[in-house]
Amino acid sequence: MLTTEQKSIIKSTAPILKERGTEITSRFYQQLFTSHPELLNLFNQTNQKKGRQQTALAGAVYAAAENIDQLEDILPVVKQIGHKHRSIGVRPEHYPIVGEHLLLAMKEVLGSDATDDVLEAWKEAYGVIASVFIEVEEEMYQDASIQQGGWEGFKPFRVTHKVTESNAITSFYLEPVDGNVLPSFSPGQYISVQLQIEGETYTHIRQYSLSDAPNQNYFRISVKKESDHDPEGIVSNHLHERVEVGDEIPVSAPAGDFVLSTKDETPLVLISGGVGLTPLLSMLKTVVHLQPERRVTFIHAARNSQLHALKGEVTDLVKQIETIQNYTIYSDPTEQDEQSVDTYTGHITLEWLQEILPHNQMEFYFCGPTGFMNAVYSALQGWNVPEDRMHYEFFGPAKSLETINEG
User: Fold this and answer.
1) Residue-wise pLDDT tens digits, 110-151
2) Is 274 among the annotated ligand-binding positions?
3) Which residues pair with 157 in a beta bridge?
4) Would the pTM count as exceeding 0.70?
5) One Pfam family of this protein, by short name (predicted)?
6) Which residue in 106, 132, 301, 309 could disulfide with 166, CB within 3.0 to 4.6 Å?
7) How far apart are CA 201 and CA 198, in angstroms?
8) Ligand-binding site membership of 372 (annotated)
9) What angle do CA 399, 368, 398 make, to 5 degrees?
10) Rounded to whole angstroms, how far apart are CA atoms 217 and 221?
11) Where are the alpha helices (DSSP H) in 67-93?
12) Residues annotated as catalytic (active site), given as ranges
């Protein structure tokens, strides 16, 4: 139990954690993987090499320090991270290992500022924070395993179809090898796939959004092939080039909190960039099935039609349902694209959104690359869209657009 004095110490260290947090977490991961290389089977090694995980963890530690009096305020972040942890297999026994090396890194980086009182306060604080994560994640493990068709950890799925959707994106249809019914999922959720890649020492785990509607006899993921083979594209290239129909892939139960709310009929705006359309297409299909009277504006941004995946599925839905408006904007259109009357040229801006949307009293969901996310978020802020009407997700470690824009 944290004392009042220890809470004061934690809050007093928040400024230095904000300043040197990434330095601490970088050293932490170095020490962690040196002592426990087996944990590289869980962590995304690309995010490690790119520094994304270090930045995300630093932000989480800083948020915990600032909110140590009211940890319930960071519960949404805990749940978001908890979904990722559950999908890759983080267990309670991992937390003491992480705590030990986090304190060692703080002591090394902070030097004389890391007094015995500071380290003892953080040891107690970490114990409290870890217990919150463990409790939240245990409930998630139970929910995943006890639902109809659910399971814990990873189980084998077979690739039944492999479909080229664009010059960069391929869809993989996955069915459970055991033939059991699939659990339902909330539109917007993802699954983790676990791959053993030839020549790689450790397992690679990646999360991919489910790109079709729930309650099918398959899961579908639509994967963008990254141009780099190392480190950015090692998994996507393996899937595109090596995985074929009939192959088996270990898959987690669906996870994630970027999900569509179908509790009301508020007009909906779904905005995607590139492969970010995958969770939003699942949302669109769900609305068509469950709320056919709900007004939906579906906006997709891509470089051009050659890189515009799953366009036909959206077009077919628009033809079926009069309540859907569909807009496409290309930043680098082909000559044929420029002749089309159905597409716009350029980037998403506040002015363009105000031109195509009648008002801002809607629910906005958006997903895509970081630059795209910044642009959409800034535009909606400029239009005075309330924060609780903006819903978004990054592909990668949890982070906030507010933090990115501050940087």
Assistant:
1) 999 999 999 999 999 999 999 999 999 999 999 999 999 999
2) yes
3) 176, 249
4) yes
5) NAD_binding_1
6) 309
7) 8
8) no
9) 15
10) 14
11) 75-88
12) 95, 137
